[in-house]
Specification:
This is Acyl-CoA thioesterase. The protein has 3 helices and 7 strands. The chain is α+β, with helices and mostly antiparallel strands. The termini are far apart.
Length: 160
């Protein structure tokens, strides 16, 4: 779901199961949608990283937040728009805009952030690792203007 925009877009139709007794979306779902957006981005733009995650690469979520600006309810269509906010040697910070799409009108209903660390190794000895180059390349299309980005050389693979 990409075009000429500077964000990756994941669209979602809200269901009743995502709302609370009052009828608006329960806050935890916004965080779930961040994760889903990130997963679909990897699937579409960095499938090598998905394979690497099935190996020993781990993407640890260090921090998430969400600022709510307006309520949404069941059957609202929401565009979750992800951009790269910050890229260091081992960490990535994403920015998310949640936009309600209704009859040609777009309303910003929430903003969020997510910071992720790249790690490798068994669970008993997990250590930071550089952000994989395929992920760096995929993210480069979605950088927020003025975002920090550390250009990190990828180590050459040698023989053990």
């Amino acid at each position: 779901m990409i075009g000429t925009q500077d964000y990756y877009e994941y669209r979602h139709l809200v269901g009743f199961e995502e709302t609370n007794l009052v009828g608006n979306v329960y806050y935890v779902n916004y965080l779930r949608w961040q994760g889903r957006c990130r997963e679909m981005f990897l699937r579409e733009h960095a499938p090598e990283v998905v394979s690497d995650i099935q190996g020993d690469l781990k993407l640890f979520t260090l921090k998430v937040d969400c600022e709510f600006l307006a309520e949404i309810t069941a059957f609202d269509e929401v565009s979750i728009r992800m951009r790269l906010e910050d890229l260091t040697q081992t960490q990535i910070e994403f920015a998310f805009d949640y936009v309600r799409l209704r009859e040609g009108i777009e309303d910003l209903v929430a903003r969020g952030r997510q910071r992720v660390a790249c790690m490798r190794g068994p669970n008993t000895d997990t250590r930071p690792t550089p952000v994989p180059e395929p992920l760096r390349r995929a993210l480069s299309r979605y950088t927020i203007r003025g975002a920090r980005s550390a250009a990190v050389p990828v180590p050459a693979r040698g023989r053990s």
